[in-house]
Each structure stands twice: as C-alpha cells, then as structure tokens.
Design brief:
The chain is about 20% helix and about 30% strand. The longest helix has 14 residues. The chain has about 270 residues and is of the alpha/beta class.
C-alpha cells in the first residue's frame, strides 16, 4: 500500500527531444533490485518534481523492453515545465503503476486497429511495442497516426521504422504540411477511408485530443464497430491517481482507479451517471 502514497526515487537515464515542447525521459528506479515498476500497457505513474509538485503520466514504453521505463512529457504547466529542465542523472519521484491497462490478453488472436493523434500516441506506443514484441499472438495490425504538422509528430524515427515493417500496416498524416513533407495530408479519420477491416474480428484502440477521439469513435461506429470493440483512455482528468481527491470522479467511478482505460460502452454508462 505504501507504494501508492510514497514516491520511489528514480533517476533520468536518457532524455530525447520529440518536438519543440515534448520530451521523452527514460527513468530507472534507484532503490531495490528492479530498475522499473511492474506494469502493463495503459497504466500510468504519478511523477513528482521535488519542491514543485506531481502529475500523472502514462508509461510510454513497453514492459517487454529495456531496463527502465519511459514517460513522454509535453511542457504545459508548472510540473511539466520543471521536468523539462531535467538532465541525465537528475532525480524525480514516482508512484505506481496505477490504474488499469489495455486488454492485451483478451484481444490475442484478433486483428488490431490502433489510431493515435498528436501527443495521444504515448500510451499507444506502450501497446504497440508490446504487440510487436509478441507479434505471434495477434493477427493483422494496422496503425494510423495524425499530427498537426510534421514537426509535431512524436517518435519520428519509430514512425519510420513502423512504416518499413512488413508485418504491420502503418500510415500517418498531418493537418498542415511543410515544404519537406511528402506524405498524406488531412485529419487522421481520413485514413480510415483507406483501410479495410473485418469488424467481426478487430478491436480498435484510440487516444488523442478529445475532439479527435470523438470523431474517430463516430467513424468507427459507422464502420460497424460495436461500442465494446472501441477502447480509449480518459487520463486527461486525473490528478492524485488513487481516487482520493475526487478530481476525476464521474458519477460513482474514479477515472484513475477504475480506468484510465475504458471501452466506449463503459464510457456510455459513465455518462449516464453524471
């Protein structure tokens, strides 16, 4: 129980600039035998900058990879701005892992459709790497990603790597191109018109800005997906991570405890309780 309330110390093992205001930090726990917490794709951590405060961040790496674990941070507030000043060797506090996770076991043997938008890709990145590292457990895998501009895309090298793979189908698009961009243009939902999926055997995962998620879900429903086949995350409303502050309460549910991963049928039931 203590691990839910008392931060463990972790050190920065690596820092990578993703965009002008987004960085990925590789962290490693300092105390004990383990370099990372035990987690599954979709779970999150509370990360604290000592003297400033803490904030929730999804774990953006897969438990199948590396000794440490990643968080991807956009600089938008006091905690995230402070985190952006950190360098390799600096320390932060972490609590967790917290929340539930993507149903990676339940969808074994199925086709997967993964749709990300902008800074919504980090939690899906954890899922994608987990799936690719267990590729034999899943059938067809399609990944669609959209961002405002080419420069706003996160994990640019990984996007190229995914596009080059022969065992998945990957497409990305931008709302507005620059002179160097040779790829697709348009919002991410336009990519759904370019693919063919068997909705009887496919689960869709999506994360991104709320407006993007809304239109993606509308499009998926029109394609024949049932609400139970559409999985997303609601982590934007979370604060304490343990259901104590009430910041993420929706009816009698706490997003940080009962989520942040929900299928669309569950989201509909949450909305009915408000």
């Amino acid at each position: 129980m203590d691990k839910l309330y008392i931060p463990q110390k972790a050190r920065i093992a690596g820092v990578k600039d993703e965009t002008a205001d987004v960085k990925t930090f590789e962290l490693r726990l300092v105390d004990g035998d383990r370099k990372r917490p035990d987690f599954l794709p979709g779970q999150f951590l509370e990360v604290s900058f000592f003297g400033i405060g803490e904030a929730p961040f999804c774990i953006s790496s897969s438990p199948t990879q590396q000794e440490g674990f990643d968080i991807t941070v956009r600089s938008v507030g006091s905690v995230t701005r402070a985190l952006h000043t950190l360098e390799v060797g600096d320390a932060v506090g972490v609590r967790g892992p917290l929340g539930n996770h993507f149903p990676v076991d339940e969808v074994k043997g199925q086709d997967l459709l993964i749709i990300g938008g902008g800074i919504g890709l980090p939690p899906l990145r954890s899922l994608i790497h987990y799936v690719l590292d267990n590729r034999q457990d899943y059938e067809e895998v399609t990944i669609l990603y959209g961002a405002r501009t080419p420069g706003d895309r996160v994990y640019k090298q990984e996007l190229d790597d995914w596009e080059a793979r022969g065992d998945i189908h990957f497409m990305n698009t931008v709302d507005a191109a620059d002179r160097a961009w040779k790829g697709r243009m348009g919002v991410v939902t336009t990519l759904l018109k370019e693919i063919t999926v068997d909705t009887n055997r496919t689960t869709a995962f999506t994360c991104g800005p709320p407006i993007m998620i809304r239109f993606v879900i509308q499009e998926l429903l029109s394609m024949g997906f049932s609400p139970q086949q559409i999985v997303t995350t609601l982590e934007r409303t979370m604060k304490c991570g343990v259901g104590k502050c009430g910041h993420c309460a929706v009816g009698h549910q706490y997003i940080c405890v009962h989520g942040p991963v929900f299928n669309f049928a569950q989201i509909g039931r949450l909305a009915e309780r408000v």
